[in-house]
Design a protein that fits this description.
CATH superfamily of the largest domain: Response regulator
CATH architecture of the largest domain: 3-Layer(aba) Sandwich
Helix content: 40-55%
Strand order of the largest sheet: 7-6-8-9-10-12-13
Number of domains: 3
Structural class: alpha/beta
CATH class of the largest domain: Alpha Beta
Number of helices: 12
Length: 342
């Protein structure tokens, strides 16, 4: 394997010209750049990232901070980020920052402070925890996936719109007793849960209906546990549920089946996500694309690196309604077709 000096000698250029041609830092004519690249490939030359970092002040490494690695949404976001970064020749360093752990404290107190990255992608960090402020204070470009912050560019689903549309679907089918399942309250808990609960409540008020909230952990077991209690109470049992996410919705469907409540003839359920298991359960849902959000965040961060003066961007994506077999009109009314509604 030849070094940069050998590449320069065979290509008939100086070492500095060869370096500029291979790193893209500085002007080199297209013909020379092509000749140097061809020689480097023939010699099997691989540029040293550490040497490039010393020369340019750039690491070509992006840090990604997220609270969970083993959950569907976060794994999908990570795949989207990685796909873009690999295509652009960037490395990725992943920081696993589980809430309430010593590892999370060390990520913010030690590892991030070393600044071994050109920029950061922060996934689902809450502004109220002041952690985004700490990331911004490091002095590197930061893009958030999910959340609400005026300190960084943000890529995320329009959660209010998604919940309103999920609720509207049930209202249009003729349901009046519709419960929102999941989340803590409209004043506490993660920003996403508050936004979705608020979207549901506003659409219910628009329809002249009374909102009903059944708080639960935003997980399949959490949705299942609370749905068992909710659906086993005949005085409170709704005819339809808007779930905070698909995992909560699937938990509710399992609870209904075990209680002998037929879905959708006796109970309609709508989720938000289009989780990888949603089709298996025939779940009507509002589709978001976490992989697309991760890719968009990576592209946005690279834009900030290339043009440091670029203004912060708030990218709010609208979900599409996918109608499957978990929703129908209330008992005694005609059924509707299944399909995708843009």
């Amino acid at each position: 394997m030849g070094g940069i000096a050998e590449v320069a000698r065979v290509a008939g250029v100086s070492k500095s010209t060869a370096s500029r041609a291979l790193t893209g830092n500085g002007y080199v004519s297209p013909a020379t750049r092509e000749r140097v690249a061809r020689v480097a490939e023939d010699l099997g030359y691989v540029a040293s990232s550490s040497a490039s970092s010393l020369a340019t002040g750039r690491t070509r490494n992006i840090g990604v901070v997220m609270p969970y690695l083993n959950r569907w949404f976060f794994a999908e976001v990570l795949e989207g980020v990685q796909e873009v970064l690999l295509a652009e020749g960037f490395d990725l360093t992943l920081y696993d920052a589980k809430p309430g752990t010593e590892g999370r404290r060390r990520v913010f107190d030690d590892f991030l402070a070393r600044k071994r990255f050109d920029g950061l992608i922060a996934v689902a960090l809450e502004p109220d925890d002041h952690e985004l402020e700490r990331l911004v204070g490091i002095g590197r470009p930061v893009v958030s996936v999910v959340g609400d912050s005026d300190q960084t560019s943000v890529v995320g689903l329009d959660d209010v719109h998604a919940a309103r549309r999920a609720t509207a679907h049930l209202v249009d089918l003729g349901h009046e007793r519709i419960t929102f399942l999941g989340g803590i309250s409209d004043h506490e808990g993660p920003h996403v849960d508050r936004e979705r609960l608020g979207g549901y409540a506003s659409r219910m008020h628009d329809a002249g209906l009374r909102p009903d909230h059944a708080p639960s952990e935003v997980s399949l077991p959490g949705g299942y546990d609370v749905a068992v209690d909710l659906l086993s109470d005949p005085d409170r049992r709704p005819t339809a549920i808007v779930a905070a996410c698909d995992e909560v919705a699937i938990g509710a469907i399992i609870a209904a089946r075990r209680l002998g409540i037929a879905v959708p003839s006796a109970l309609s359920v709508v989720g938000i996500d289009n989780h990888e298991y949603s089709e298996m359960f025939g779940l009507t849902t509002l589709e978001q694309s976490p992989r697309g959000q991760g890719a968009a965040a990576a592209r946005l961060l690279l834009d900030h690196l290339r043009s440091p003066g670029t203004e912060r961007t708030q990218m709010r994506l609208h979900a599409r309604l996918i109608v499957r077999g978990s929703t129908s009109p209330p008992p005694g009314t005609p059924s509707v077709a299944v399909g995708v509604i843009p």
